[in-house]
C-alpha cells in the first residue's frame, strides 16, 4: 500500500549518492601527470596548510611553464581533508586510486601523517611531508623534507647554552607527540650536558590554549632563581599568539628570559605585534630574511603569485620547494613516474635549497638542511644570529632515546626503515 | 473493598490537614484541610487562583507542600512519594487542559493508561492479552470513540479529548479520580453525557471534580467544597453553600 | 663579564673626574667606531665598552641610539638617527642634513642588548632626570656588577630624590651582598635592604650569595629569603584570584551575548562564536583603515571599533533572526542545527575574505605593559578587559531593566501571546533582542582581539565555554551569567596550579555536570509553576 | 520471543531497508572481490572503504535517532560513545601488532616506547583477547551512558540543559584523551594497525568482510531499535517525548525508561565505533569533538527524525555529499554547501527527507492520520 512509494524514494536517494560517491571527478586527459595536494583548506589546520597548497600550485605552474615533466604537463589535484584525520586517509586513498596521482605533497600534523601512512603503504605511492616533526619514523613511501629534531631542537639548545650562557631551562609545549618527543630528547640531551633536573621545568598545555597568565608568571618565577633562564617552546601554532601577547604584557624581555620557538615562523608572527617580542628566537632551516639570489627570486615569485606584496614565506614552504624539485629530478632521472622507480631513485638526489646550500635526500628519506637561529625583529621578520657551518643530515631515529638509539633507516642497502645496528636485523625485534 | 484499613489514622480515603504551599512568597494554599470518603464524589468550586489546581498538584505529588499532612487510604503519606508512585497507588488525574498523547492513536492512549505493571521489562515484551483487549474495547465504547480507535489523538476535537482523557482515567482503574474541569469547552449535550458518565464512575470510585459550571455541579448533585485563597470557605450541598453570603460575595466581588 | 671590569675602571676614572688625555680618547673612539661598522656582535659589544671607557661626550647618546637600532654605521662615519628623525654625526655631535650613503643600521642580538643596558646603567646613574637614574639603578641591580659600586656610592652621595635614592641603595645592596671584600656589617645591611624590596628579583639576588658568607650572614639571608617567600606566597594567592577574575571577565564577555539570545529568547545560537569573531575582524579592519588614513588616531582604534563591531555583528544577527530563526521559534533544537550551519558558512566566508591565517590586531599604548601593585603584577590589557566587561554588563542590565525596549523584551519572552495582544510587535522585538545579543558578542570580539588569535576559528574556541557559563549560571538571568562566569574563571585558575591546565578544565566540566544534577536549572533558576509549562 | 520481538509487525519500509542492507552485504564485496577491475560493475576497494565508513555512521545515526527521535533526548555527546567503542577496538588492534612495531617491543605500543613508558597501564590489560575487547565495546559506552543517565534523568535534567551537559561530557573526554599521560596515544591516537583476528586489516578480503559485517550490524541495530520503538515500551517512550509529566501521572517511572533507551543507544553507538576503526585505520581524540556529535544530529535531522531508516539515509547522504564536495573545484567552498544544506533542511524539510516524503504521500491519501513517530516540538 502506501509504503512502497516511500521505499522507492528512500532507495532512489541512497542509490543516487552511491553512484555519485563512487564516480568522483573522472581523470581528464591521459597525457598529464597528476600531483596530489593533501592540505586542509578548512578547519583548525587551514591556518597553516592553505599556504602550502598555494605554494604547490605555484611550483606546478612554474614547472609547466618550463615545459612540464617528461614532455607531459603536470596537473594538480587539490582535495580538502578539512583538518579531520580519518578524512585525510579517505582523501589519500581517493587521490591514489581514483585520480592516479604520481606523488602526493601534504599533511602538517603528525596525526594526519600517521593516518595516511597505511594508505600510502598499502597502495604503494609517494608522500612528501614538509613539516618539522618528532622523528622516530622512516617509511619507504614517505619522504620527510621538514626538520628532524637533530636539525632544529638540539642546535637551538646548543646556541642558547653557548651564546646566552643559559643554565636553567623551561621546556614548554602543547600536549601532543611532537613536543613530548622533542622535550624527551632535549631533556636527555641537557642532562647529558650536566644540567641538573631541578634546573629543567617541563610544562604542557592543551591545543589552542588561550589563557597563559598562570604559566607565564610561573616561568617568571622559575627564571628568578639567580641563574640565566631560557624557554624552549614547542607550543603549537594557534596557541602562540596569546602566549607571546602575555609574555609581552608581563614584560618578559628577551634579554631577561629569551624564548626559542620551533613552531613560530613568519606566518605566525604575521598575526602578532612583534615590538614587545624583539630578541626572542626561533630555530628553522629557512628564514624569509636570508639574502640569497634563490630566496629573493622565490619571494618575488610567491608575492606575484599570491598578488600580495606583503605575503610572507616560511620554512615548510621551502621544504615543499626542495621536495618538489627533488621529485622532479628523480622522475627525470628514471624517465618514469612509477612510484617504485622514483622511490629507489630519490635517495642521493640533490636539489638547491633557498638558503644557498644543496640539500640531499638521504637513505633514511630525510634530507640535509642548514640550521639557522633567528631573532624576532620589530617588523615580524627574523634576523639570523647564528647558523651551522655546513648542512646537518636528518636523523630518523634520535640518539638521545633509549628506544631508538640503535636504529637507523636505510632504504638503499638495508631496504629497511628501522634497522637495528646492535642485532643487525631489520624490524628492531 | 474500600473498607477502612485497620490501624489507619482515619477511615477516609484521602485526608488533607493544615496543608500550605507558596511559590516565591505567594501563598497558593494556606492551611487547607479536606477529607474524601471511599466512593464519595466531591465537587470543588472556587474563583480563579483559589488554589484548586495547586491542591491537585499536591495530591498527585507534582508539588510538595511546605507544611501539612496528606494521607491516602489512611496509611500512606503522599508527600513522601513521587508522581509515578502515587499514580500506581490508584490516584488518577485528568488535567484542566486536556493532555493526551497527540502522536499516538486513541487506542494506544488507552493502552498506555491500562492498568498493568509499569516496569521497563514488562512493557518491552508486552503482548496485549484477550481480556485486556476487551477492556480497551469497552472503554472505547464508553467514551464513544470506538470507531475512531486508529485515529491520532491529535486529530480529536477538544471535547473528544476530554472524553479520551476520562477514558484513560477509567483504564487506570484508580481508587480516586481527580477530574479538573471536565465540562470545559463542551456542548450542553456533551456536558450532560459527561455528568452521567462521572456519576457512573462514582459508583465504585472516589471522585473529586473541579468545575466552574454551576449547572454541571447541580447535575452531579453532590457535596460541594468552596475554596478561596487557598483554604476552605464553605462546604455542603450546593444550595446550602450558594446561600452563604461570603461565597456570593467572593464570586461577585471577584 | 670581563668588559665590565674595564667599564668599572673607566667609571672610576669618570667619577674621579680624572680626564684622560684627549689623544687617547680620539684613538679609542676611532677604534670603537671602526668596530661598530664591522657588523659583528662581539665587535659591537667591544665598541660599547670602548666608547664608555673613552668617556666620549656623546657616549650615552650613541649607546642609547644603538639600543633602539637608531645607530647607522659605515666604513667612513657613524651617524645617530635622532628620535625626531634628524641625523647627528656620532663623532662630533653636530647635526647633518641627511645620512651619508652606504650606512647600515648596527645590528643587535641579546648579548649586545645586555651590554647596552649595562652601559646605560653605568652612564645613566648621573643623568639629570631622576626617572632615568632609577632605570639605571635598576639596570645595575640586575647586572650586579661590582665594578659600578663606586659610581653607585657616588650617586647615592649626591642623590636628593627619595625614590631614586631607594633604587640606588638597592643597587648598592645587590652589589655589596655578593662581595666577599665588603664589610660584614654592610652586607648584613644589604640583606635588610633586599628584604625591604622583597620581590622575585630581590629573592634572586639573595639566593646568589657566594659561598664565602659568614654564618651570621647566612642566617640573615635564610631569614630574609623565608620571609620574602612567605610574603610572595600570599601574593601568589591574590595573583591567582586576579587571574581568575580576568579569565572570568573574558568568559563573561563571551557568554553574556548568549545569555540574551539563549537565556532570554531560548534560541540555541551555535553561530554565537562567529559573532564574536566578526567583532574581532571588524576591529582588524578598523585598525587597517586607521593605519592607512589616520595613524595618529591609532590609540583610539578600539574605541572606534566598538560601535562598528556592535553594528556589524548586530546587523548580521538581525539578518539571521529575520532570515532563519524566526521560522523556528518553539523548536529550539532545530535552531541549533540551523545556526550550526550558519556558523560554518560565516567561518568559511571570513576565511575566503580575509584568508585563513591570523590577522594582527595591534594593542594601543594604554593597553600594553603592566604595573606592580604590591606583589601583584597587573597587565593593562587584562585590567581594561575586566573594566570593559563590567561596563557591558551594567549597560545590558540597564537596557533590560530601564528602557521601554527592555520592558517589551521581557514581556515578549515571558508571554508572547499576551504581549502581542497588548500591541507589542513581537517580531520586531525578537529581531532587536537577537540583534542586541549578537551586537554584544561583537563587542566581546573587540576585547578578545587583544588577547587571542584573530582567525576564522576564534569563535569556535569560546562557544562551549559560553554555553557552560550560561547553563551554570541559570538561563534567563544576567546575574546568573555574571556569577557563573566569575565562579568558573576563578575556580579554573585556582585549580590550574595544582591540576595543570588540562586536568583543571576537565575537573571543572565534571563539576558542572554534577552541579546540574543538583540544580537542574542552574544557579539562579526561576521557580514556580511558570517554569513547568 | 526475541525473534518475535525483533520481527513484530514488520512493515514494508523496514523490509525493504533490510533487503537493501542484505544486498549490499553480499553484492558489494562480491563485486569487489570477484569481478575484474575492468568490469563496469566492479566496486573499487576505495568505494568499499568509503561505504564501510558511511554505514558505520549510519548505525551511529540510528542509535541517536532512537534517543532523540523517539525519546526526545537530544544528545550532543553521542560521538563520545562512538569513540569509546572505537578506542576499545583500537586497543585490541594495537595489542595485535605484537613485535611488529618499529621498536619490536612485544608488550608496549610504539608511542609508549619512545615516551619511555616502563610497563603497560592496567586499563590495557585483557585487550589482547578479542572477546574481552568486544565485551568492552558494549560495556564501556553502556556503563558511561548508564551512570551519566542515572544522574541526569533521575534529577530530571531535560531539554537544552541535558544537551549542553552531554556536550560537556564529550568535551571533557576530548580533553582527557588528548593528554598523552592517559596512555591512549594522545593526539595521534591509535593507528598503524596490522591485523584483526589474524587477518591483515589492509587485505582486500578483510575489508570486504568488515564491510559485510558493518551491513549486518547496521541491520541488527536497526531491528533492535525498531523492536524497541514498536513495542509498548516504544509507545511509552514516545509518550515521554510528547508529554513527560502526563506519562508520570499514568504511573510510568520516566527516568528508568529514558535510562534504558539511552544505554541501549550508547551500546549501539559503541559498536558503530568499533566497526569504524579497523576500516578507517585510526582512532584519535578528535572523534570526541563536540562538532562531530552535532554533525551526527544533523544527519538524523536531514534524513528524517523519528524514522530510523531516515537517520541511516541522512548519514549516507550527508557524508556522501561531504566526500563529493571536498574534492575538485568545490574543495575551497564545500563548507558553504554543507552549512547551506543544514539551514535549508531545518527551514524547509523540518521532517527531513524521509519524513517530508511520507507527509507528501499521506497528504494525498488519508489527510488526518500521521506517522506514529511524528517529530513533536522538542522541549
TrEMBL record, chain A:
Protein name as it appears in the record: Urea transport system substrate-binding protein
Alphabetical list of InterPro entries matching this protein: ABC_urea-bd_UrtA, Peripla_BP_I, TAT_signal
Pfam families xref list: Peripla_BP_5
Cross-referenced PROSITE patterns: TAT
Cross-referenced CDD domains: PBP1_FmdD-like (cd06355)
From TrEMBL, chain B:
Swiss-Prot/TrEMBL keywords: ATP-binding, Nucleotide-binding, Transport
One Gene Ontology cellular component annotation held by this UniProt entry: plasma membrane
Signal peptide start and end residues: none
Alphabetical list of InterPro entries matching this protein: AAA+_ATPase, ABC_AA/LPS_Transport, ABC_transporter-like_ATP-bd, ABC_transptr_urea_ATP-bd_UrtD, BCA_ABC_TP_C, P-loop_NTPase
Any GO MF annotation of the entry: ATP binding
PROSITE patterns in alphabetical order: ABC_TRANSPORTER_2
Pfam families membership: ABC_tran (PF00005), BCA_ABC_TP_C (PF12399)
Chain ranges of the ABC transporter domain: 14-254
UniProt xrefs under NCBIfam families: urea_trans_UrtD
Database matches in PANTHER family: CONSERVED COMPONENT OF ABC TRANSPORTER FOR NATURAL AMINO ACIDS-RELATED, HIGH-AFFINITY BRANCHED-CHAIN AMINO ACID TRANSPORT ATP-BINDING PROTEIN
Protein name: Urea ABC transporter ATP-binding protein UrtD
From TrEMBL, chain C:
GO cellular component, one term: plasma membrane
Location(s), subcellular: Cell membrane
Molecular function, one GO term: transmembrane transporter activity
A Pfam match: BPD_transp_2
Main location: membrane
UniProt keyword list: Amino-acid transport, Cell membrane, Membrane, Signal, Transmembrane, Transmembrane helix, Transport
Signal peptide: 1-26
Entry's Gene Ontology BP terms: amino acid transport
Entry-linked InterPro entries: ABC_transp_permease, ABC_UrtB_bac, BCAA_transport_permease
Membrane topology: Multi-pass membrane protein
Keyword RNA-binding listed: no
Residue stretches spanning the membrane: 241-268, 300-320, 332-350, 383-400, 467-491, 497-516
Membership in a protein family: Belongs to the binding-protein-dependent transport system permease family. LivHM subfamily.
PANTHER family (UniProt xref): ABC TRANSPORTER PERMEASE PROTEIN, BRANCHED-CHAIN AMINO ACID TRANSPORT SYSTEM PERMEASE PROTEIN LIVH
Name listed for the protein in its UniProt record: Amino acid/amide ABC transporter membrane protein 1, HAAT family
Species whose genome carries this gene: Bosea thiooxidans
TrEMBL record, chain D:
GO MF annotations in UniProt: branched-chain amino acid transmembrane transporter activity
Protein location: Cell membrane
Membrane topology, from the record: Multi-pass membrane protein
Protein keywords: Cell membrane, Membrane, Transmembrane, Transmembrane helix
Ranges annotated as spanning the membrane: 54-73, 80-103, 123-153, 160-178, 208-225, 257-277, 297-321, 333-354
Entry GO terms, CC: plasma membrane
InterPro entries (UniProt xref): ABC_transp_permease, ABC_transptr_urea_perm_UrtC, LivM-like
NCBIfam families: urea_trans_UrtC
PANTHER family: HIGH-AFFINITY BRANCHED-CHAIN AMINO ACID TRANSPORT SYSTEM PERMEASE, SLR1201 PROTEIN
Protein name: Urea ABC transporter permease subunit UrtC
Phylogenetic lineage: Bacteria, Pseudomonadati, Pseudomonadota, Alphaproteobacteria, Hyphomicrobiales
Amino acid at each position: 500500500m502506501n509504503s512502497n512509494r516511500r521505499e522507492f524514494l528512500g532507495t532512489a536517494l541512497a542509490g543516487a549518492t552511491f553512484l555519485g560517491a563512487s564516480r568522483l571527478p573522472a581523470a581528464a586527459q591521459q597525457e598529464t601527470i597528476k600531483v596530489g595536494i593533501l592540505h586542509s583548506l578548512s578547519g583548525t589546520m587551514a591556518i597553516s596548510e592553505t599556504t602550502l597548497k598555494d605554494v604547490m600550485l605555484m611550483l606546478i605552474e612554474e614547472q609547466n611553464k618550463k615545459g612540464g615533466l617528461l614532455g607531459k604537463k603536470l596537473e594538480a589535484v587539490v582535495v580538502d581533508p578539512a583538518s579531520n584525520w580519518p578524512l585525510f586517509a579517505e582523501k589519500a586513498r581517493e587521490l591514489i586510486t581514483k585520480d592516479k596521482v604520481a606523488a602526493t605533497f601534504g599533511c602538517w600534523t603528525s596525526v594526519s601523517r600517521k593516518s595516511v601512512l597505511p594508505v600510502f603503504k598499502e597502495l604503494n605511492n609517494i608522500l612528501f611531508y614538509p613539516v618539522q616533526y618528532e622523528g622516530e619514523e622512516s617509511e619507504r613511501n614517505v619522504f620527510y623534507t621538514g626538520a628532524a629534531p637533530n636539525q632544529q631542537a638540539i642546535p637551538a639548545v646548543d646556541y642558547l647554552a653557548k651564546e646566552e650562557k643559559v643554565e636553567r631551562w623551561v621546556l614548554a609545549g602543547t600536549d601532543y607527540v611532537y613536543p613530548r618527543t622533542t622535550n624527551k630528547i632535549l631533556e636527555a640531551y641537557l642532562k647529558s650536558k650536566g644540567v641538573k633536573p631541578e634546573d629543567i621545568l617541563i610544562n604542557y598545555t592543551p591545543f589552542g590554549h588561550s589563557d597563559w597568565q598562570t604559566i607565564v608568571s610561573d616561568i617568571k618565577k622559575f627564571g628568578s632563581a639567580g641563574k640565566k633562564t631560557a624557554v624552549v617552546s614547542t607550543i603549537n601554532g594557534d596557541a602562540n599568539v596569546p602566549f607571546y601577547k602575555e609574555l609581552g604584557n608581563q614584560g618578559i624581555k628577551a634579554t631577561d628570559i629569551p624564548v626559542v620557538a620551533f613552531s613560530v615562523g613568519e606566518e605566525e608572527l604575521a598575526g602578532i605585534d612583534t615590538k614587545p617580542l624583539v630578541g626572542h628566537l626561533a630555530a628553522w632551516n629557512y628564514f624569509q630574511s636570508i639574502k640569497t639570489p634563490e630566496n629573493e627570486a622565490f619571494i618575488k615569485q610567491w608575492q606575484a603569485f599570491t598578488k600580495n606584496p606583503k605575503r610572507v614565506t616560511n620554512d615548510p614552504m621551502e621544504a615543499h620547494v626542495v621536495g618538489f624539485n627533488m621529485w622532479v629530478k628523480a622522475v627525470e632521472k628514471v624517465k618514469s613516474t612509477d612510484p617504485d622507480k622514483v622511490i629507489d631513485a630519490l635517495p642521493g638526489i640533490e636539489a638547491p635549497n633557498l638558503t644557498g646550500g644543496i640539500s640531499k635526500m638521504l637513505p633514511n628519506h630525510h634530507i640535509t638542511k642548514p640550521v639557522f637561529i633567528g631573532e624576532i625583529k620589530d617588523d615580524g621578520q627574523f634576523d639570523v644570529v647564528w647558523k651551522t657551518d655546513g648542512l646537518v643530515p636528518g636523523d630518523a631515529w634520535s640518539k638521545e632515546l633509549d628506544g631508538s638509539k640503535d636504529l637507523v633507516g636505510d632504504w638503499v642497502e638495508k631496504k629497511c626503515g628501522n634497522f637495528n645496528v646492535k642485532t643487525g636485523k631489520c624490524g628492531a625485534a | 473493598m474500600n473498607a477502612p484499613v485497620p490501624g489507619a489514622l482515619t477511615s477516609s480515603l484521602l485526608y488533607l490537614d493544615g496543608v500550605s504551599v507558596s511559590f516565591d512568597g505567594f501563598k497558593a494554599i494556606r492551611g487547607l484541610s479536606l477529607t474524601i470518603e471511599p466512593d464519595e464524589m466531591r465537587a470543588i468550586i472556587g474563583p480563579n487562583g483559589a488554589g484548586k489546581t495547586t491542591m491537585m498538584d499536591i495530591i498527585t505529588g507534582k508539588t510538595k507542600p511546605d507544611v501539612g499532612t496528606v494521607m491516602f487510604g489512611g496509611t500512606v503519606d503522599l508527600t513522601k512519594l513521587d508522581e509515578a508512585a502515587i499514580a500506581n497507588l490508584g490516584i488518577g488525574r485528568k488535567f484542566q487542559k486536556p493532555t493526551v498523547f497527540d502522536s499516538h492513536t486513541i487506542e494506544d492512549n488507552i493502552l498506555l493508561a491500562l492498568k498493568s505493571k509499569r516496569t521497563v521489562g514488562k512493557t518491552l515484551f508486552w503482548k496485549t492479552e484477550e481480556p485486556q483487549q476487551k477492556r480497551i474495547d469497552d472503554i472505547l465504547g464508553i467514551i464513544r470513540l470506538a470507531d475512531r480507535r486508529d485515529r491520532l489523538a491529535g486529530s480529536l476535537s477538544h471535547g473528544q479529548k476530554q472524553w479520551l482523557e476520562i477514558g484513560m482515567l477509567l483504564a487506570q482503574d484508580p481508587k480516586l479520580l481527580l477530574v479538573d474541569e471536565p465540562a470545559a469547552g463542551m456542548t450542553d449535550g456533551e456536558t450532560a453525557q459527561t455528568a452521567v458518565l462521572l456519576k457512573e464512575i462514582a459508583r465504585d470510585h472516589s471522585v473529586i471534580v473541579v468545575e466552574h459550571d454551576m449547572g454541571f455541579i447541580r447535575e452531579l448533585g453532590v457535596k460541594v467544597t468552596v475554596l478561596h485563597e487557598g483554604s476552605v470557605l464553605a462546604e455542603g450541598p450546593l444550595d446550602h453553600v450558594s446561600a452563604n453570603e461570603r461565597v456570593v460575595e467572593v464570586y461577585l466581588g471577584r | 663579564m670581563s668588559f665590565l671590569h674595564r667599564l668599572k675602571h673607566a667609571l672610576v676614572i669618570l667619577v674621579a673626574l680624572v680626564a684622560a688625555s684627549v689623544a687617547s680618547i680620539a684613538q679609542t673612539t676611532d677604534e670603537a667606531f671602526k668596530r661598530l661598522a664591522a657588523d659583528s656582535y662581539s665587535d659591537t659589544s667591544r665598541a660599547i665598552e670602548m666608547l664608555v671607557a673613552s668617556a666620549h661626550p656623546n657616549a650615552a647618546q650613541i649607546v642609547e641610539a644603538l639600543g633602539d637600532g637608531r645607530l647607522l654605521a659605515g666604513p667612513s662615519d657613524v651617524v645617530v638617527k635622532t628620535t625626531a628623525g634628524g641625523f647627528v654625526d656620532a663623532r662630533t655631535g653636530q647635526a647633518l642634513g641627511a645620512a651619508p650613503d652606504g650606512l647600515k643600521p648596527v645590528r643587535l642580538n641579546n648579548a649586545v642588548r645586555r651590554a647596552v643596558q649595562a652601559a646605560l646603567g653605568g652612564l645613566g646613574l648621573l643623568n639629570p632626570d631622576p626617572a632615568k637614574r632609577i632605570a639605571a639603578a635598576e639596570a645595575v641591580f640586575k647586572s650586579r656588577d661590582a665594578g659600578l659600586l663606586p659610581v653607585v656610592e657616588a650617586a647615592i652621595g649626591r642623590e636628593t630624590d627619595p625614590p631614586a635614592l631607594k633604587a640606588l641603595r638597592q643597587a648598592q645592596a645587590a652589589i655589596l651582598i655578593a662581595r666577599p671584600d665588603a664589610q660584614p656589617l654592610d652586607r648584613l645591611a644589604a640583606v635588610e635592604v633586599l628584604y625591604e624590596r622583597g620581590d622575585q628579583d630581590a629573592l634572586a639576588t639573595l639566593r646568589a650569595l657566594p659561598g664565602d658568607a659568614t654564618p651570621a650572614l647566612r642566617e640573615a639571608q635564610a631569614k630574609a629569603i623565608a620571609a620574602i617567600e612567605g610574603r610572595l606566597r600570599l601574593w601568589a594567592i591574590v595573583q591567582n584570584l586576579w587571574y581568575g577574575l580576568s579569565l572570568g571577565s573574558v568568559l563573561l564577555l563571551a557568554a553574556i551575548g548568549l545569555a540574551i539570545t539563549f537565556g532570554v529568547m531560548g534560541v540555541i545560537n551555535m553561530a554565537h562564536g562567529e559573532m564574536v569573531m566578526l567583532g574581532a575582524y571588524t576591529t582588524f579592519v578598523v585598525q587597517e583603515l586607521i593605519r592607512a588614513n589616520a595613524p595618529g588616531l591609532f590609540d583610539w582604534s578600539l574605541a572606534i571599533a566598538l560601535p562598528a563591531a556592535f553594528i556589524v555583528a548586530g546587523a548580521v544577527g538581525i539578518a539571521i533572526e529575520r532570515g532563519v530563526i524566526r521560522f523556528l521559534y518553539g523548536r529550539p533544537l532545530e535552531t541549533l542545527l540551523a545556526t550550526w550551519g550558519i556558523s560554518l558558512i560565516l567561518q568559511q566566508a571570513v576565511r575566503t575574505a580575509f584568508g585563513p591565517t591570523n590577522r594582527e590586531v595591534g594593542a594601543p599604548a594604554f593597553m600594553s605593559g603592566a604595573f606592580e601593585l604590591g606583589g601583584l603584577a597587573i597587565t593593562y590589557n587584562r585590567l581594561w578587559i575586566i573594566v570593559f566587561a563590567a561596563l557591558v554588563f551594567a549597560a545590558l542590565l540597564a537596557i533590560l531593566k530601564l528602557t521601554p525596549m527592555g520592558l517589551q523584551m521581557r514581556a515578549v519572552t515571558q508571554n508572547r501571546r499576551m504581549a502581542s495582544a497588548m500591541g507589542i510587535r513581537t517580531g520586531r522585538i525578537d529581531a532587536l533582542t537577537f540583534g542586541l545579543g549578537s551586537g554584544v558578542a561583537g563587542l566581546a570580539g573587540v576585547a578578545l582581539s587583544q588577547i587571542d588569535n584573530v582567525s576564522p576559528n576564534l569563535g569556535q574556541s569560546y562557544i562551549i565555554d559560553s554555553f557552560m557559563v550560561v547553563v551554570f549560571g541559570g538561563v534567563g538571568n544576567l546575574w546568573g551569567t555574571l556569577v557563573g562566569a566569575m565562579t568558573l574563571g576563578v575556580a579554573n585558575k585556582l585549580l590550574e596550579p595544582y591540576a595543570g591546565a588540562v586536568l583543571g578544565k576537565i575537573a571543572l566540566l565534571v563539576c558542572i555536570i554534577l552541579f546540574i544534577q543538583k540544580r537542574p536549572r542552574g544557579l539562579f533558576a526561576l521557580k514556580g509553576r511558570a517554569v513547568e509549562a | 520471543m526475541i525473534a518475535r520481538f525483533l520481527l513484530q509487525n514488520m512493515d514494508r519500509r523496514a523490509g525493504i531497508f533490510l533487503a537493501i542492507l542484505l544486498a549490499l552485504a553480499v553484492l558489494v564485496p562480491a563485486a569487489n572481490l570477484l569481478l575484474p577491475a575492468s568490469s563496469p560493475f566492479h566496486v573499487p576497494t576505495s568505494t568499499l572503504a568509503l561505504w564501510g565508513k558511511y554505514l558505520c555512521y549510519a548505525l551511529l545515526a540510528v542509535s541517536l535517532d532512537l534517543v532523540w527521535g523517539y525519546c526526545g533526548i537530544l544528545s550532543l555527546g553521542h560521538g563520545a560513545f562512538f569513540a569509546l567503542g572505537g578506542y576499545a577496538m583500537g586497543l585490541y588492534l594495537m595489542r595485535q601488532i605484537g613485535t611488529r612495531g618499529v621498536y619490536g617491543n612485544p608488550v608496549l605500543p610504539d608511542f609508549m616506547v619512545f615516551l619511555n613508558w616502563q610497563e603497560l597501564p592496567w586499563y590495557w590489560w585483557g585487550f589482547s583477547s578479542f572477546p574481552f575487547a568486544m565485551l568492552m565495546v558494549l560495556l564501556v559506552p553502556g556503563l558511561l551512558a548508564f551512570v551519566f543517565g542515572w544522574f541526569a534523568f533521575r534529577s530530571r535534567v531535560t531539554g537544552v540543559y541535558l544537551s549542553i551537559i552531554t556536550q560537556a561530557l564529550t568535551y571533557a573526554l576530548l580533553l582527557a584523551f588528548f593528554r598523552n599521560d592517559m596512555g591512549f596515544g594522545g593526539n595521534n591516537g591509535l593507528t598503524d594497525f596490522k591485523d584483526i583476528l589474524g587477518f591483515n586489516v589492509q587485505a582486500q578480503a578483510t575489508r570486504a568482510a568488515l564491510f559485510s559485517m558493518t551491513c549486518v550490524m547496521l541491520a541488527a541495530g536497526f531491528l533492535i531499535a525498531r523492536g524497541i520503538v514498536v513495542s509498548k515500551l516504544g509507545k511509552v517512550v514516545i509518550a515521554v517525548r510528547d508529554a513527560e509529566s502526563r506519562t508520570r501521572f499514568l504511573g510510568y517511572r520516566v527516568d528508568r525508561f529514558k535510562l534504558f533507551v539511552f544505554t541501549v543507544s550508547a551500546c549501539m553507538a559503541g559498536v558503530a565505533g568499533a566497526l569504524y576503526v579497523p576500516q578507517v585505520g585510526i582512532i584519535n581524540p578528535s572523534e570526541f569533538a563536540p562538532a562531530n556529535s552535532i554533525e551526527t544530529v544533523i544527519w538524523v535531522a536531514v534524513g528524517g527524525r523519528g524514522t530510523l531508516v531516515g537517520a541511516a539515509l541522512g548519514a549516507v547522504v550527508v557524508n556522501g555529499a561531504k566526500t563529493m564536495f571536498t574534492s575538485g573545484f568545490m574543495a575551497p567552498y564545500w563548507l558553504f554547501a554543507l552549512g547551506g544544506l543544514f539551514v535549508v533542511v531545518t527551514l524547509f524539510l523540518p521532517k527531513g527527507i524521509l519524513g517530508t516524503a511520507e507527509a507528501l504521500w499521506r497528504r494525498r491519501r488519508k489527510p488526518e492520520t500521521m506517522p506514529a513517530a511524528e517529530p513533536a516540538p522538542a522541549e
